[in-house]
Specification:
5 helices; about 0% strand; globular
Length: about 90
């Protein structure tokens, strides 16, 4: 199981809001870029799902302020948690 194209757009769009800022550590930005590239190629690995789960949980307090579709993001987090546990 992997993300649908809609889920990839949701998760990458949300994470892009935070991880492409100049103030973000270069190593974190690079991890996000690798995640985004692999997600678009439908080539995510176990470590990618774990990273995404941690990132989404860390950014969870910002969902209500910054993202229009919190339910879609919650659904992606739930799927990510399931995929990272495999």
């Amino acid at each position: 199981m992997s993300y649908t194209s809609e889920e990839t757009a949701i998760i990458c769009g949300f994470l892009n809001l935070y991880f492409e800022r100049d103030s973000v550590d270069a190593a974190v930005r690079e991890k996000f870029r690798r995640f985004r590239r692999r997600a678009k190629q439908d080539a995510l690995e176990q470590e990618d799902y774990r990273w995404a789960e941690k990132a989404l949980i860390f950014l969870r307090p910002y969902w209500w302020d910054s993202f229009e579709d919190q339910r879609a993001l919650e659904s992606v987090l739930l799927k990510t948690s399931t995929l990272s546990a495999k």
